[in-house]
Structures are given as structure tokens and as C-alpha cells.
Design brief:
The complex is a heterodimer. By secondary structure, chain A is of the alpha/beta class. Chain A has 13 helices and 8 strands. In chain A, strand 3 and strand 4 form a beta hairpin. In chain B, a hairpin with a 2-residue loop joins strand 1 (61-68) and strand 2 (71-78). Chain B is elongated. The chains are: A alpha/beta, B alpha+beta. Bound molecules: adenosine-5'-diphosphate and magnesium ion.
Amino acid sequence: MARIIVVTSGKGGVGKTTTSAAFAMGLAERGFKTVVIDFDVGLRNLDLIMGCERRVVYDFVNVIQGEANVGQALIKDKRNPNLFILPASQTRDKDALSIEGVGKVLEDLGREFEFIVCDSPAGIEKGATLAMYYADDAIVVTNPEVSSVRDSDRMIGILSSKSRRAEQNLEGIREFLLVTRYSPERVQRGEMLALEDVQEILSLELIGVIPESTSVLNASNSGVPVIMDRESSAGQAYSDMVSRYLGEDLPHRFLKVEKKGLLGRLFGG
Amino acid sequence: MALLDYFRQRKTSGSAAIAKERLQILVAHDRRGGGPSYLPQLQHDILKVIRKYVAVDNDAVSVHVEQNGGQEILELNIVLPD
Ligand SMILES: Nc1ncnc2c1ncn2[C@@H]1O[C@H](COP(=O)(O)OP(=O)(O)O)[C@@H](O)[C@H]1O
Ligand SMILES: [Mg+2]
């Protein structure tokens, strides 16, 4: 049986798709057979972030509606043989997904894969609740900012009440907090909520802190998951996060302002 | 520019503290939920009764539950057409 992980947040634009791509690639790099599914029907962009947009033939909705089988819709990653992508439909809307349909596809995929990563759409409505319904684990992506923290808190409530595990009285979804777009400089200036504040409010196990980094934009421009940018702080932070998910105990990095010399302070940005 | 920033940053007391305080209140409120689950139905029923006598809009009736110390106060608001 595959382990199903949902990457969720409530709020849009916080880094769910960036995280799904990096996390799935990271698992594949560690040798696990992994599939990443785009649940953002109508606004698909996981395929862009993964760099396989020109190879989409069939999508998730086609599979659910029986117009293609799941094997036809899966796109094999060109860089890593363990990784597959199931793209979302660009033309239909979220009503094309059903709880039974999604369940059937996940069951089929569960026979082939070790990890199934579900990239959730924004919101707390149908698309988002379907993406989390069958999850075993949830990564709650949060920016250190008021509306994102609030939405995450609401999503945490939904995870514990409206999932398959909750409805069948099974052990609850394991929930992890991932803080993204973290800027130690702004925290130091008192402009941004500190990591401790976010943790205090949400009280979830912290699986990673991804710094704000231009390498994320570069990665998405070129269709390469940022975790493959080994030089970048964001790539390294994602790699740490994958290790922690797999059970390693690593200290969190990139939390403090890097000390610049006087020259750096005078001329640096 | 960077030099100016360097001196300025020591003085700014940022807004993060306010953000935290607001969030704590907001989240506590969210977690209490939007009130008991019968509220929407109650609202619907009251609207029906009012409509026996006056023609009002769908959103003319609002009900809220307020927590006040140990007491729960059901607040009912009906806007009549003028
Ligand atoms: N750590 C980061 N540093 C800088 N930009 C980021 C970071 N994470 C995400 N972004 C940017 O934020 C935007 C939204 O990211 P995305 O992953 O699409 O969010 P979501 O899927 O939650 O809507 C994108 O432009 C992305 O490049
Ligand atoms: Mg997205």
C-alpha cells in the first residue's frame, strides 16, 4: 500500500505546488516510486513546475471519467525513473472530480507506487477537501503572514474532521507544518512573524522551513523542481524536509540572518 | 541606500507583534466554530415566520452566538424594509 500525502494550505500562492514538486522529486531521488497528482482542476500548473507540460495527453479527469486509463495519463519524469506525474485538466472544473472516482484512481496507483503526493488547490471547498480526503499524512504549507496562518488553522480543523480517517474512526492524519517564504531579515526587523510565533499558534510538528529565495522562481522558469538546485538554500531546505519526513532528525537551517561584513552591509542588497 | 537601511532597521519596531496578537484572537474565535450547528436552520425558520407578516430579503435575519464570561448570548438581528 502506498502512503498518501496531501500538500495543503487553505490559502493560495503560498508554495503548495512548489512544495509538491520538490517533495515528490526528493522522494524519487531517495529511491521511492512516487507519483505526484495535480488536484487543481481548471488551473493546472504542476506540469509546468515539473517541466512536462508539453507531454500531457490525458489528465486526471479523463481517468476519473473513464476516457483513459491511469497508465495512459501518467507522465514519466525524464530526469528520474522513479517519478511520475498525473496532470490536472485545464478545461473542466472541480465538479468533474468525485470522491468515489478519486478513491478508485488512488487505489489503482497504490498498487504501483510507494508514495502518492497530492497537490491541493487553494480554498477549503470541494477540490481541496477531495485532495485531502484519502490522505495518510498532510503537509500544511504556511507563510509567516496573518491570512496564511489563519487559513492553515482552518485547514487543520478540516483535516481532523472531514477525512476518510476521521470518518472511519481510524488513526488521524499525521500533520506537519512547513513554513515557506521565510525571510530571517524581515523577522529580525520585526516585520514578519517569527517561526516560533507561527509554531505557537498552529502547534504542529515542524517538518521544514523554506527560505524566501530567488532560486524558486528560476526553478519554475526552467521547469525543474527547486530541490534539484543543490546550491540554493531553498533546494537544501527542501532536501532536509524530505529527510525529516523519512525519519531523520536534522536541525533546521537558514533561520538566522547571514552575517555580512561591513562592506556587504554598505553595498549589499 | 544599504547604509541608510542599516541605520533605519534599528529603529523600526515592526508590525509582526501586532500580527501575532491579532492571529491569536482570530484563531481562538475560529476554533470555537461559527456557533452551534443548529444556527443556519434556526435562521431559516425565523425568516419563514417573519415572512408570514412582512416581505423581507433573504439576508434580513442574522443570528450570532456571543460568549460573554460564562454566558452564551444568542443575538438575533432582523432588518425590516422601510
Ligand atoms: N521559498 C520561496 N521563495 C520565493 N518564492 C516562492 C517560494 N515558494 C513559492 N514561491 C513563489 O510563490 C508563488 C506561488 O507558489 P506556488 O507553489 O504556485 O503556490 P500554490 O501552489 O500554493 O498556489 C510562485 O510564484 C512561486 O515561485
Ligand atoms: Mg498550486
